[in-house]
Amino acid sequence: MVTCYLKYIIDPYKLSEFELYSKMWIPLVEKFGGQHHGYFLPSEGANNVAIALFSFESLATYEEYREASFHDEECLAAFAFAKETRC
């Protein structure tokens, strides 16, 4: 199993946009066979950091997901949303 760790630096003025963006990815990761573990925020300290964790059965299945995400309409919409809102 491979667990991916993504660190986001969030614009504090775009929290609602980031929340929408993050919610888009949970079913998308699962659509491609992964398990999304959610988003985590620090309880103290910086308030503009979020961590996402998701796992795939193997590095090969993660790489398949990555490649497929660049061609999937829902993933492309999520990428576009992030670019448009700069969340």
From TrEMBL:
Transmembrane regions: none
NIPSNAP domain: residues covered: 8-83
Pfam families: NIPSNAP
Residues in the signal sequence: none
UniProt-recorded name of the protein: NIPSNAP family containing protein
Organism this protein belongs to: Marinobacter similis
